[in-house]
């Protein structure tokens, strides 16, 4: 049976379908990614500030609580120790980047069908 809609109604329906599809497939995912990025950046700022302050407190503890070990010529050693520790934390963080995307889970061999 032929539909009783006119050409203008059909075109209007197609336009509405196209607009709703574009909104569903572009705008909604962008909003979700924006929310994900906002929480990620906020968490990054808080964690970075905390690690920085812990590094400063560790440096201060090495300079004041170790007696005469790090005085004179050896006064640069606490800076080296803290730099190495913070560098190791940065290396660990960088090694964890890219281990999955947004909403992905690691697959186990049983999920892949491998026994």
Describe the 3D structure:
Helices cover 68% and strands 0% of the residues. The radius of gyration is 28 Å and the shape is rod-shaped. The chain contains two helices and no strands. The protein has one domain. With 115 residues, it is mostly helical. The longest helix has 58 residues.
Basic shape: rod-shaped
Instruction: Give the end-to-end Cα distance, rounded to a whole number of Å.
Output: 54 Å
Q: In terms of per-residue confidence, which ranges show pLDDT below 50 for 5 or more consecutive residues?
A: none
Sheet-strand content, in percent, reads: under 5%
What is the overall number of helices? Answer: 2
Q: How many domain regions?
A: 1
Biggest β-sheet: count, sense, barrel?
Answer: none
Q: What's the SSE pattern?
A: HH
| DSSP summary, beta strand count | 0
Helix fraction, binned, reads 55-70%
Mean pLDDT: 85
Q: Helix- and strand-based class?
A: mainly alpha
If you compute it from the alpha carbons, what radius of gyration comes out, rounded to the nearest whole angstrom? 28 Å
Keywords:
115 residues, 2 helices
Question: Topology of this structure?
Answer:
Blueprint (H helix, E strand, L loop, with lengths): L6 H58 L12 H20 L19
Helix pairs in contact: 1-2
Give a nutshell description of this structure.
By secondary structure, the chain is an all-alpha fold.
């Amino acid at each position: 049976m032929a539909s009783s809609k006119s050409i203008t109604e059909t075109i209007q329906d197609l336009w509405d379908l196209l607009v709703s599809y574009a909104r569903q497939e572009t705008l909604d995912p962008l909003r979700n990614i924006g929310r994900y990025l906002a929480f990620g950046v906020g968490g990054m700022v808080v964690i970075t500030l905390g690690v920085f302050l812990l590094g400063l407190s560790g440096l201060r503890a090495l300079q004041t609580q170790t007696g005469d070990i790090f005085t004179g010529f050896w006064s640069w050693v606490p800076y080296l120790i803290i730099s190495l520790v913070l560098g190791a934390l940065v290396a660990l963080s960088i090694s964890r980047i890219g281990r999955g995307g947004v909403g992905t889970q690691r697959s186990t061999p049983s999920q892949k069908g491998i026994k």
